[in-house]
């Protein structure tokens, strides 16, 4: 409960910039409630007047009644207008504050280290940005002002009852602590299930996102039945937690209503007695019954909204969990980039491990000269991709240093380090926009001429011009309206337009046929010309011309040299090369 209250307090920091609209919403709400508190008393005046006329044998004073009805019409109009304005102001506050919250989450995601996304499903992160923020937004929009109105309404209704008849008001006041005790007990039991419900919803989103992304592979291996079973487990867990949360919180309404109905009976009996004693008028008893409703109805409203509030509470905790995640460590002193970067790279006694108990790279040392092409080869799990992650500062070294032109990258701003690199990955990523904009992603300030020039360098210009709308053709959300090889060429063009000092090619030709491999290889040769390049390749035939080949195994360089030198050694590389050559021949 304390954690939820702390999270809700932090939500109000997003409301603070819109305090004028927030205050106006409250002001309109207070006017609405005051008017609402006056209505029962005014409504009871005609009844009292008619009862007096009949008691005294007089004709009914219709002039008085018409005046009261006119007053009721004016008061009712004020009620409707102020209630509407209260909702308008509150909507403005909620929508703008939630916009700011989503902006902060988006900015936070961009500041999180790569390791966070290695440990968390994308669907789970997406659920916090969408579902959890929506839950908080709905609670603030639908519940917050309603609960404040309910609490103020109860205070005003009780004040009016105390003025009319203090003894009768005590009967109604008794229901409030009873309702609070009931509500607090049920909330304490159900809150953990609301938290579990939001967690399960995040798991479900993660599962769906993961399986839709790999839908073709799922179908290929006939895993539909197993996937349905796995989905059922997650879905049933969500249903189980949702049912418990709703069922337990659902007890609140009938129990609170039971106390309210008891107060109705008590007021009716005691009120009749006071009328007979002459201590209360009939119209005031009528007003009292309406005031009882003005107390019980808000109490019921609060209990109805309790499930929404508890969902929002759980969602708020999850939102601030991601906002409180440790960010990429900023350097105390950032050495500015030199005006000219040559591209000399050195690894000096580098050690690194994802888990301190399981060392991966130890005392790794190598020096790469500007303009050299360095191939990194080795079996799966040897540490090839980890080496690139360290070079890009996706992770920082545990010990030792990586230097570019003699400058330790840990003393440089991360964005400056990464601005030196162009990268072509094995899994080509395109986003939902035109082909031209996908290429321009490497340099957002590039002109149309530069986009076309980069496409020509990457051997993809001809393909683009054969497509409908050419450079304006839209890549769909899945990126599957172009082939895998064409995607790869487009990502090479993206790397070209960024004009990097150092190029990284991570398995760039591993998933294409021989013809496309040749085309991609020619494009890469053009791009690598004059640049320091790191190439990770499973197809060893593609790196024969590399200036330096690093052979890695279990995080260590076990051999290094050019192709001819390593073949002549008849060591690990020679066995790896020959086994691959034989497999390709077979």
From TrEMBL:
The keyword Cell inner membrane does not apply. SMART domains: AAA. InterPro entries: AAA+_ATPase, ABC1_TM_dom, ABC1_TM_sf, ABC_transporter-like_ATP-bd, ABC_transporter-like_CS, P-loop_NTPase, Type_1_exporter. It is found in: Cell membrane. Residues 23-311 form the ABC transmembrane type-1 domain. Keywords: ATP-binding, Cell membrane, Membrane, Nucleotide-binding, Transmembrane, Transmembrane helix, Transport. Residues 345-579 form the ABC transporter domain. One of its GO terms (molecular function) is ATP hydrolysis activity. It is a multi-pass membrane protein. It holds the Pfam family ABC_membrane. The keyword Nucleotide-binding applies. The chain crosses the membrane at residues 20-44, 64-89, 144-163, 169-187, 258-276. This is ABC transporter ATP-binding protein. It comes from Vagococcus silagei.
